[in-house]
Amino acid sequence: MATTFEALDRTCAIVDQLAAKLAAADGLNWAEPCGYDGDGDCCDSDTCVAANYEDHDAEVGRAAYRRYARHALAFTGRVASRETEIAAARAADSDSQPDGTRDSLAMCALMLETYGPDCFPPDENGQLHFARCMMDATASEIRAFLAAPIGGQG
């Protein structure tokens, strides 16, 4: 399972486009190279996407704006990930009622793993909401069940 940071850093073109617009609304330039990127040892820019972050890490800044963009896209009903498209197609399918199959369980685990980090990110102290812990535990249990041999003990 991806770490929270890796999950939040998943992206696609529409997410990056909106993230760039959100950064611009804050007076930041999404495409501007940060002076700390690569071998740089300083960044004097007030418009670098990392300008508002203490550690001045451009990837952390971009990941935050991507997270905001995904939330905005989800709120407006636009899809920003392949997993969402699959879930939407499945929901529109009249045969998509719960069926207890291994494929159905795998889809449930995928949705929990995909949306848990976005719905319940860690707080400022790095602690997870109880609902997020339950989502992660459920996804892990489903994955363990699916990995077990069919007809095995359980």
Quick structural overview:
This protein has 154 residues and is mainly α. The protein has helices spanning 4-8, 13-25, 58-76, 82-92, 102-119, 130-147. It is elongated and about 60 Å long.
What secondary-structure arrangement, pairings included, does this model have?
Elements: H1 4-8, H2 13-25, H3 58-76, H4 82-92, H5 102-119, H6 130-147
Helix pairs in contact: 2-3, 5-6
What report would you give on this structure?
The protein has 154 residues and is an all-alpha fold. The chain is 55% helix and 0% strand. It contains 6 helices and no strands. The chain has helices at 4-8, 13-25, 58-76, 82-92, 102-119, 130-147. Helix 5 packs antiparallel against helix 6 (130-147). The protein starts with a helix and ends in a 7-residue tail after the last helix.
What characteristics describe this protein?
154 residues, 6 helices, disordered N terminus
